[in-house]
Amino acid sequence: MPRIPTPETISAAPGASQPMLRAVEKQLGVAPNLFRLISNSPAALEGYRGMSAALSKGRLPAPTRERIALAVAEINECTYCLSAHTYLGKNLAGLDDAEMAANREGRSNDSMAAAAVHFAAKVARERGHVGEADLEAVRRAGYDDAQIIEIVQHVALNVWTNYINKVADTEVDFPVVQARQAA
């Protein structure tokens, strides 16, 4: 049972959130529970959508962004985000099951993405306390400083959604995927 109420419909959300939720629904075909939950605060919904939109214009490809989301959700044991990003990873980013399993372990079967996912997992586990060797490893793999900043920003955005969902105990509206640690 959710600990923070999720508006049942777009029209039940605060008025300032309704246009943003309609835009989400137009983009995804549905307004998932996470977005409706966040809509309790129009400012938070605007911030989340704004950061997501800005990062989607960055230089990290969508599959790498989904890989990072899966790694961070596993670290934070967020069932909602694991479920959502498994669905998105498969259906929008074209990731296969073996790749998503590797991502949840902080790895990737793609050599370039592996460095980004490993670095993102380290940032999440160590709360940003990475060493010079960690930065050099991601640079050697071909990532520049702008992409490294984007990786860190994706970690931060995903930690935020993980925490929101864990605090609220958001009802999962995707096929459920449990964290390995929580199983």
Could you list the spans in which at least 5 consecutive residues all have pLDDT below 50? Answer: none
N-to-C SSE string, H for helix and E for strand: HHHHHHHHH
Rg from alpha-carbon coordinates:
16 Å
| Total count of helical runs of at least 4 residues | 9
What is the overall silhouette?
globular
Strand runs, count: 0
Helix fraction by DSSP (H/I, runs of at least 4)? 55-70%
Protein name: Carboxymuconolactone decarboxylase family protein
InterPro entries: AhpD-like (IPR029032), AhpD_core (IPR004675), CMD-like (IPR003779)
Pfam families: CMD
Domain Carboxymuconolactone decarboxylase-like: 43-121
Layout: helices, strands, pairs:
Layout: H1 18-28, H2 33-38, H3 42-56, H4 62-75, H5 79-91, H6 97-104, H7 111-125, H8 132-140, H9 145-168
Helix pairs in contact: 3-9, 4-5, 4-6, 4-7, 4-9, 7-8, 7-9
Question: Could you give a quick summary of the protein structure above?
Answer:
Helices cover 63% and strands 0% of the residues. It has helices at residues 18-28, 33-38, 42-56, 62-75, 79-91, 97-104, 111-125, 132-140, 145-168. It is mostly helical.
Provide a descriptive summary of the structure in words.
With 183 residues, the protein is an all-alpha fold. It contains nine helices and no strands. α4 packs antiparallel against α5 (79-91) and α7 (111-125) packs antiparallel against α8 (132-140). The model has no long low-confidence stretch (mean pLDDT 96). It comes from Mesorhizobium australafricanum. InterPro entries: AhpD-like, AhpD_core, CMD-like. Residues 43-121 form the Carboxymuconolactone decarboxylase-like domain.
